[in-house]
Amino acid sequence: MTKQQERARARRRQQGPQRATEAPVSESTRDKQLFGGILAVILVVAAFVAVPHFLPKGDPTPQSAPTQAGSATGAALQEGQQLAAGCEQPPPLQTTPKTFAKVPDKKAAAGKTFVASVHTTCGDITFELNGAKAPQTVASFNFLAKEGYWAPSPCHRVTSAGIFVLQCGDPTGSGSGDPGYGYGVENAPKDGVYPAGTLAMARTQDPNSNGGQFFIAYEETKLPTDGGGYTIFGKVTKGLDVVKKIAAKKALPPNTNDGTPVSPISILSVEVTEKKA
């Protein structure tokens, strides 16, 4: 045997015990690892399914990132966010958003027209509310405004591909908040077309999940009619330019067509008055 062969045999003898000390993976360990992987997948899927108040299936990759709370002088901007011209720093999120036990009586709004003045960090937006066509929705909107439910609350979602809306009305900023009650669809267009300036309710796939979240169509938008569509309860009569200013900057990456606005905007207060004939 040559010296080179003797050295090779010595190296093999030395390496053998090192390999033997590596703990083998038992069948029970492999089963636990497999179960853990499956559980992780289930949790991820469940998280996407559970998040409510998005527009329906068919919109481009529905996502809505939470807004970060900040100091007493204003909310901290998320990475990549920039204030649009004429906008102020948003306030922090509400510490404990209000919830309510029952749906407001629709008789309070039936057959009436109202004007809502929505004061935001980027200027005022005025709505005309149609209690004749959507009495339950308008009664709920008026009640939540009076109770200060949205004071303050961020508009947490903007979309800009096929669907052109700014979605607001969730004090938690997460896209999953509600006032503690829900009700059904009213006055939804049969063709699914929502003209620019339309004010409508956001909901989950459950038609009875209308609550506090609403959206403003800043361009004509066509939505699926599954589940009865989306309640139109009014229109923007002033301030649509404010919405368009926010929409122009789109959403934060990775999906700039659907998500948290690059230019943040928050509702500060809402005042509603009845419009007399």
TrEMBL record:
Residues 1-29, 57-97 are annotated as: Disordered. It comes from the Bacteria. Residues 61-71 have a biased composition (Polar residues). InterPro entries: Cyclophilin-like_dom_sf, Cyclophilin-type_PPIase_dom, Cyclophilin_A-like. One of its GO terms (molecular function) is peptidyl-prolyl cis-trans isomerase activity. Its EC number is 5.2.1.8. This is Peptidyl-prolyl cis-trans isomerase. It catalyses: [protein]-peptidylproline (omega=180) = [protein]-peptidylproline (omega=0). It is an enzyme of class 5 (isomerase). Keywords: Isomerase, Membrane, Rotamase, Transmembrane, Transmembrane helix. Belongs to the cyclophilin-type PPIase family. The chain crosses the membrane at residues 34-55. Gene3D superfamilies: Cyclophilin-like (2.40.100.10). PPIases accelerate the folding of proteins. It catalyzes the cis-trans isomerization of proline imidic peptide bonds in oligopeptides. Residues 72-86 have a biased composition (Low complexity). Residues 123-272 form the PPIase cyclophilin-type domain.
